[in-house]
Each structure stands twice: as structure tokens, then as C-alpha cells.
Design a protein that fits this description.
alpha/beta; nine-stranded mixed β-sheet; 9 strands; 32% helix
């Protein structure tokens, strides 16, 4: 089914760098995981970067109460809020609408795009290190931080990077927990080509980058706190009741990648 999209309403709060000045756009998609999202936002907003960045939270049909809370917090904290109900009539999840909108805005602004998911907390230098690391590598498409738990141990979805150090070129795919998409890559591809039957696009975009003759990198020494599935708690059934998990995934058509 085609994704029905409308143009963003410009009458929304905006963080530093609005008006095309910001050369980095940071986005966090969310649905109802508000407490974790506000921790994510607080960490992003105190990032130490050389230039201002535009930080946008995409609210994917959260409850009216949570939407009102996000609107209040956007004014108090200084992030830009986009309610996807203003852009589409398609029920959640609307990651594709978020990606297409964010790509269009970043390309028009001459900016790169950093996705920080709502179950991730960055360090003050995370954003700067990913931006600088990507800039040092020609034809870099995606630059990802490694995820760790509260003890600093590498966790899902980067368990394959356990024990690795430095920068690893990834030939398969990256997860978008905390991942930079460079302006050069965004300008060379079109997310309109992504399959609207899917719900998540980490794998598709990683492969799109490789087909376009770009490279993807994991920065093993750039680490972010990740509470796996904090934004999609039903996925915790994978560990407690695999039967219920697969019933949700396959019979209800959730989590298509």
C-alpha cells in the first residue's frame, strides 16, 4: 500500500540551526516510549559539537496524553517536534515517512542525518566523533556507534562487535540505533525506492549504500547506552516467550525488515 504523506507544517518549535544553517540533522522516532525518549533527548541536546544541529523528534501516533507531553517538552527543552499525524494517515509504525521526510530536509539543507533511537543515550562526544569519523573516510555512507548496556558490555544488536576495537568496515548491514547517514550518501540515493511493505529499513538502506558504491563503518570505540527494545516492549517476548513473540511477528505482521 502506498504511504500517504503530506508536507510538514512549518509552525513547529525548532532547535538551534533551523532555517538551513545546520549542517547536521539529528532525529529520534518515537511512539509512546516517552520517559526513555526524554532521556535520549536530554543527552542529545547537550552534545559537544563544532556546529549547531537541528534536533527533531518524530512522534508516531503516540496517545493524546503523550503527544501533549512531547509538545510541552519540545518548548521547554528546545527540540523540534513533528507529529506524524500531520504528515500521514497511515497507522504506526511510520518509519518510512520519517526517513523520507528527514532525507528530503537534510538534502535541501546540505546536511548529514544522525538517527538516535528512543532507547539510546549518547555521550556528550558521540555526535562529534561520528561526524568527524565519517568525514575522514571517502565514500562513507553510514557511520554507526556500538551499543552497550549499563555495565559497558556490548549488547544487541552489535554483539558481533564484541572484542573489536577501532573502526570496522561492515559488508552486511548496520543497525540504526545511533547511526550517521552522510550528506553525500543521502544526495546519491532516493528513499522513495524503499519497499513500503516493510516497517524497518536498517538492512535495506545498508545494502542500498553498498550498491551505490559507498562504504559502511562501525566505530567500535564510540559507544552508546542501549536498552534493547525499550521503544517496542513487545519484542522482549523474544527472551521470555518465543512462541508469543513469533505469533506477534508473523501472524500479526509486526517488525517487517
Amino acid at each position: 500500500m502506498p504511504v500517504a504523506e503530506r508536507q510538514p507544517d512549518d509552525r513547529r518549535p525548532a532547535a538551534a540551526g533551523v532555517g538551513g544553517a545546520a549542517r547536521l540533522h539529528v532525529v529520534t522516532p518515537v511512539k509512546d516510549s516517552i520517559d526513555l525518549t526524554l532521556q535520549t533527548a536530554a543527552a542529545v541536546l547537550v552534545s559537544r559539537t563544532a556546529e549547531p544541529f537541528l534536533y527533531t523528534i518524530y512522534n508516531d501516533f503516540s496517545t493524546p496524553e503523550n503527544t501533549a507531553l512531547l509538545e510541552r517538552k519540545s518548548r521547554e527543552m528546545g527540540f523540534r517536534l513533528v507529529n506524524l499525524a500531520d504528515l500521514t494517515d497511515t497507522p504506526s509504525p511510520n518509519y518510512l515517512v520519517t526517513l523520507r521526510t528527514a532525507q528530503r530536509e537534510a538534502v535541501e539543507a546540505g546536511a548529514s542525518l544522525l538517527i538516535v533511537e528512543s532507547d539510546v543515550v549518547v555521550d556528550p562526544d558521540t555526535v562529534r566523533r561520528l561526524v568527524e569519523g565519517a568525514a575522514e573516510r571517502p565514500r562513507c555512507a553510514l557511520a554507526a556507534a556500538v551499543t552497550v548496556d549499563e555495565r559497558g558490555e556490548v549488547n544487541y544488536p552489535y554483539l558481533r562487535m564484541k572484542g573489536r576495537r577501532g573502526v570496522v568496515e561492515e559488508s552486511k548491514h548496520l543497525s540504526f540505533c545511533c547511526t550517521l547517514l552522510t550528506h553525500a550518501f543521502l544526495s546519491a540515493v532516493d528513499f522513495a525506492a524503499l519497499d513500503p511493505a516493510k516497517q524497518w529499513f536498517d538492512v535495506s538502506i545498508s545494502h542500498m549504500a553498498l550498491r551505490a558504491d559507498f562504504s559502511n563503518y562501525v566505530f567500535c570505540d564510540v559507544r552508546v547506552l542501549h536498552r534493547p527494545h525499550g521503544s517496542r516492549p513487545w519484542k522482549m517476548l523474544k527472551y521470555s516467550s518465543r512462541l508469543k513473540y513469533y505469533w506477534q511477528k508473523f501472524l500479526k505482521g509486526r517488525d517487517k525488515i
